[in-house]
Amino acid sequence: MALISIFSTDSFSNDNTGSIIEPVLRAVLGRSYTDELFDLFHYLVRKSAHIMEYAILGLFWYRAINKRLCGWNIKAAIAAVMFSFIYASLDEFHQAFTSNRDGRPLDVMIDSAGAIIAMTAVWFYNIKCRAGINGHR
Q: Do residues 115 and 84 make contact, with C-beta atoms less than 8 angstroms apart?
């Protein structure tokens, strides 16, 4: 959560991350891309980061609540998503007070989707776990 808070500062605003992403895009596509393509790629990278960081947070919450590695716990999964949603809401509220960021409800939904994706992965993992696949029994 501390890393997410750091990523929510002006240092990681849209204006500041473009200079990091542009060399990567240039390395892949050369100079043959439009400003519109760059803006789309930049947007997708930033939103993918939201999904990944909240998927990781959701996994951490799930593991903190459910001590067993093998064994699906729907209550722990719901709690993990809810705690992630609450933190995403607080994070966006914080961003509303920074000079180069906005607090956006859409980002809360994207963040929450990351936690839901993680819980889906945990559920699938536990299907294999119950079946004894990969020696998890």
A: yes
